[in-house]
Amino acid sequence: MTQKKNTILIIEDEPPIRKLLNIVLEAAEYKVVECDNGREGVRLAASVRPDLILLDLGLPDIDGKEVIASIREWSQTPIIICSVRNEDEEIVNALKVGADDYVTKPFNPDVLLARIYANLRKAATHEGGEPDLVNGNIRMDLVRHEVFINGTKAVFTPREYDLLRYLIINRSKILTHKQILKDVWGAAHVDNMQYLRVYISQLREKIEPDPAKPIYIVTELGIGYRMEVIVEEVKDVA
Ligand code: CA
Q1: Domain that holds residue 139
Q2: Is residue 76 part of a domain?
Q3: 4 versus 124: which is more confidently predicted?
Q4: How far is the CA of 58 from the centre of ligand 1 (A)?
Q5: Co-location of 111 and 138 in the same domain
Q6: Which residues, 6 or more positions from 220, have their beta carbon under 8 angstroms from its beta carbon?
C-alpha cells in the first residue's frame, strides 16, 4: 500500500534535459512519465491522466501549441511550458492557447519545483473548491495527496483515496452504485458492484469510529451510498 503521488508528464525531446527533470522531480517524490514527441505526449496525457504536464515548445513532430490545444479539448490538467529565454512571443501564444505557466531554460530546480507546487495547488483548489477537503474528523490534503484521520496521517491506496475524495466532494448527495463506479473506476466498470462493496468496507475500516455502525458513509438501500456531512466533534477542554 503506497501513498498516492502526483504524476508529472514530461514532453521534451532533448535527452539531457529529460534526465535532469527526472532527477529533480523524483528527488521531490513525484512520479514521472516521459516522452520525446508531441503526439505521444497527447496520448499519454489521456492514458496516464497526469496531475501536471511539463511541455517543451520545440518538439520534433508537432508544435507545442498544438499539443496544448489537443489536451485542452478535454482536460484542464495544469500545463507548464519549458522554453528558452528569447521565445517571448512563443510563450505568450502558448499561454493564449491554454498553458498555465512557464519556466525558462536553463532551469533553476527550486523555481521549477515552486511553480509545479503552485500549479498543483491551484488545480486542487479548483477541483475541490479548496486545497483541503474536510468532513468531521477526516481531512484530505489534495495537494500532497495525504489523508488525516483525527489529525493523524493515515495510509490509503490510490483507489481508496480517489473514492474518499469523490465521496467528500459529493457529500450529502445520494450517489448510485453505477454513478460511483463510473466516476471513480471508469465507464467499463459500472457493473462491478463487488469492487465497490469491498472498497466501501475498506474505507469504513479506516474512517469510521465504529465500522459496523457507519456514520460517515451511509448505505442507501438498493440505491447506493451517501457521505453524511459530519460536524467535527468539539474536544473536551476541561
Ligand atoms: Ca526541444
Answers
A1: 132-227
A2: yes
A3: 124
A4: 4
A5: no
A6: 174, 226
